[in-house]
């Protein structure tokens, strides 16, 4: 497949950028560098959403694409007298995934590394060894022995923290693993779609939104949709992939390498967040895939939601769906996506926009 190498380079560049929810400025700068030259209009809103506009021949038809820029991470909340840094979660974490990691604190003076240390195995009781250590008991060791030394490194309460992990393609394959494939994979899709559409004349006007603060409550997408008032909105994100050991296929039938996931239904019962995608949209998305024999998967999920939720109910509401790249190990330090899946996701979204009629 042509262009996969280029796609991989872009994904790796995006994945390397730190951008915890609320601290998306560096990702925004990348999106601007790549997209401003190939769109008709651009603006940034109050929350920091980046809005790139390609005008179509029919100003009455508005399609909004939305890929969130932020990644899950942490924020410094205390530095103790021995110099250890405690932190709070930003976004949903499984605390088992946070132990014995190298984390990067993004201070005003640059990046400071630390490790999430733990009690040596020799001292852990049998009972303790079976328990996950709660997030509030984790701490970051930045290699100092007192508070003054940690402060001297530039670490302050309020600094954001990311996993520190060099992304890579595993063993020469097209499987990429990195700290923030959720959702730099979606950002990669959106950049590519807009670049490929740049030279084409299309019917609808497309608003490509790189959104903020998705991981803490789908915040940016809602306000952006309120301002744009699209007819149709599509979240571009990653979807939880099964197909790995100890994952029940009945619960997680989506698999990596089988193409983009067209969402039909998502619901988070504890909050009511979710999106029951209207059939008149899913039909068009399936048609867009089948027109070019693009492989796709039908996705239905309980226990989570995407930017599609807030876009669908903002302002007067919008017909909203979600097209996702399947990803293994989401919401951990080691997400994994496949380049072919990303390429097919781009093709599906491009096909949908080109074929779009009200
Ligand atoms: Zn996401």
From TrEMBL:
Details of cofactor binding: Binds 2 divalent metal cations per subunit.
Presence of keyword Hydrolase: yes
Keyword Cell membrane: no
Binding site for Zn(2+) 2: 182, 215, 331
Signal peptide: none
Binding positions (Zn(2+) 1): 68, 182, 237
Record key words, sorted: Aminopeptidase, Hydrolase, Metal-binding, Protease
Protein name from the UniProt record: Peptidase M42
Active-site feature positions: 214 (proton acceptor)
Alphabetical GO biological process terms: proteolysis
GO-annotated molecular function: aminopeptidase activity; metal ion binding
Listed InterPro entries: Peptidase_M42, Peptidase_M42_aminopept, Peptidase_M42_dom2
Phylogenetic classification of the source organism: Bacteria, Bacillati, Bacillota, Bacilli, Bacillales
Lineage top rank: taxon: Bacteria
